[in-house]
Amino acid sequence: MAKAKGTRGNPMLPKPPKLPATPTLPKLPATPTTTSAARSAASTKPSARLSGSGADTRLTALPSKLPLAPEAKYKRILLKLSGEALMGSTNYAIDPATLAQIADELVDVHGLGIEIALVLGGGNIFRGIAASSTGMDRAHADYMGMLATVINSLALQDALESRGLHTRVLSALEMERVAEPYIRRRAIRHLEKGRLVIFAAGTGNPYFTTDTAASLRAMEIGAEIVMKATRVDGVYDKDPQKHKDARMFRHLSYLDVLNQNLGVMDSTAISLCRDNSLPILVFNMTKPGNIRRVLLGESLGTIVGKEIR
């Protein structure tokens, strides 16, 4: 028998059936593409800040970055406020009227185009060094004091933002739910964008005061001066509230403050400013408008700086 031929091309075999054509799916409507302009417009819509009742209580935000007023003496400052400055006429915590007054003055000064950073104390809520004198561990007490400064910072932030001033709280202790972590370059960028920056939680280390934190942060951000707000007009040779013949100094050197133990700031803060030639201005903040007058060059308070020869 002859061998069977290959099946390929064999006309005797049936042709394979044709498969049904694949059905064509209907075209879906094209997804609209969001343009960059639309995204930008959406990102610039003002976000509502809600109060506890759900009602919008925020004012229209102020322009972020204003040009520097030609009569302004400084471009970037650091303002040091004690926790007691927020107490006003009360004996504890935060007086709403005093908080509102401070916020109004800061908004007014910000309108000059000056870049403002703040350091707040916490003595109106908790003072670490006082607690340590009663037997509490000093480091533990200082950390509690740092938390008190965060409370004050958040209160002032709310008062400022309710007036439309963009404010950022940067904490030396990480607590991301309520404040940004302190990062030097981020702080400087906030200032360059016209935001007011509040440094909370001191230096983040026990045994250092908020005065030292103010000196340190001022140098890190390149502030031109540290302005320490007090309840008296400047630095005196003795307590003006107890002695009517107390004499106020107009100018002091860093060594004068250290040698005479005048109590302007603690010795660590003074030494830090001295080593870096950072001037300190001590003035009375309880008088409305004093911050603006100082920043416009009016001679108020006591200036601590290099020795005049």
- Biggest sheet details: 9 strands, mixed
What is the name of the CATH superfamily? Acetylglutamate kinase-like
CATH architecture: 3-Layer(aba) Sandwich
Number of domains: 1
CATH class categorisation: Alpha Beta
Total strands: 11
As a percent range, the share of helical residues equals 25-40%
Helix segment tally: 9
Fraction in beta strands: 5-15%
- Alpha-beta classification: alpha/beta
User: What best-fitting shape do the alpha-carbon axes yield?
Assistant: elongated
Spell out the blueprint of helices and strands.
Elements: H1 36-43, E1 76-81, H2 96-110, E2 115-120, H3 128-132, H4 138-161, E3 167-171, E4 180-181, H5 184-192, E5 196-200, H6 210-221, E6 226-230, E7 235-236, E8 248-249, E9 251-253, H7 254-259, H8 267-275, E10 280-284, H9 290-295, E11 302-305
Parallel strand pairs: 1-2, 1-6, 2-5, 3-4, 3-5, 6-10, 9-11
Antiparallel strand pairs: 7-8, 10-11
Helix pairs in contact: 2-4, 6-8
Write structural notes for this entry.
With 309 residues, the chain is of the alpha/beta class. The protein has one domain (62-305): Carbamate kinase (3-Layer(aba) Sandwich), CATH 3.40.1160. Helix content is 30%, strand content 15%. It contains 9 helices and 11 strands. The chain has helices at residues 36-43, 96-110, 128-132, 138-161, 184-192, 210-221, 254-259, 267-275, 290-295, and strands spanning 76-81, 115-120, 167-171, 180-181, 196-200, 226-230, 235-236, 248-249, 251-253, 280-284, 302-305. The strands form 2 sheets. Strands 4-3-5-2-1-6-10-11-9 form a 9-stranded mixed β-sheet, sandwiched between helices. Strands 7-8 form a two-stranded antiparallel ribbon. α2 links the parallel β1 (76-81) and β2 (115-120). The longest helix has 24 residues, at 138-161. The chain is elongated. It starts with 35 loop residues before the first helix and ends with a strand. Residues 34-57 have low confidence and may be disordered.
